[in-house]
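Progress against Task 2.4 (sequence-to-structure conversion) is shown through the following example record, which the project officer requested during the mid-term review.
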Amino acid sequence: MVVLAVTWMAKVGHENEVAGIFSKLTEASRQEPGCAMYIVHRHKTDPRRFFIYEQYKDDAALEAHRAAPHFLQFARKELPKVADRVEGNLFEPLG
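Structure tokens generated for the chain above:
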């Protein structure tokens, strides 16, 4: 299992656009055979801040996600126009 935790910050005035992009990305990512979990969270008091929690079967599944057409379209092409990636961390379970 591989876990990816990512934080994005929407540019001012683009909060709803970012939420819409994440909605599309979530729907497509959850269809990937190696994706165990893909959940986008929005900060309770800062509507510009988004946190994404992702679980993949293994490193190969994560790489497949990063090469998927929906990832390239939404995460690589569309999101950077309206948001900044603040942080991204890879984890693996302890047991």
